[in-house]
Amino acid sequence: MRFAYTILYVEDVARSLAFFHNAFGFSAGFVDEGGDYGELDTGGTRLAFSSRALMRQLGKVPGIADPNAPVFEIAIETTDVAAALERACTAGAVMVQEPREESWGQTTAYVRTPDGYLVELCSPVAMPS
Predict the structure, then answer these.
(1) What region holds the VOC domain (predicted)?
(2) Which of 25, 75, 79, 113 is most exposed, with minimal Cβ within 10 Å?
(3) What is the C-alpha end-to-end distance of the chain, expressed in Å?
(4) pTM (2 decimals)?
């Protein structure tokens, strides 16, 4: 088995794909003809978006992300957290936490997407020698 993708439920798939492209540089992969589902090419694992309307048609009751009480986060690794934060905010993200050095040797910052999802921008973890 392998971890293939994560799907976020959103109101507007095209808007979410455009935001993640502009904010983080990910390119769109598969997008269905009706616009209710799309994937981003992020490397080994894809990040996908499905419209809440499609989920309701499939008999599901999708919730809405609550940035004040998140139940998960997406982590995007970069060598320049400050530049990634600036790019994300320019694209419409809301800063939740400025860059800071963590005790485990990593720099982290957090933003909220227009759909309310929490995204961690982080440097690679510095491994002890």
Answers:
(1) 2-124
(2) 79
(3) 32
(4) 0.92
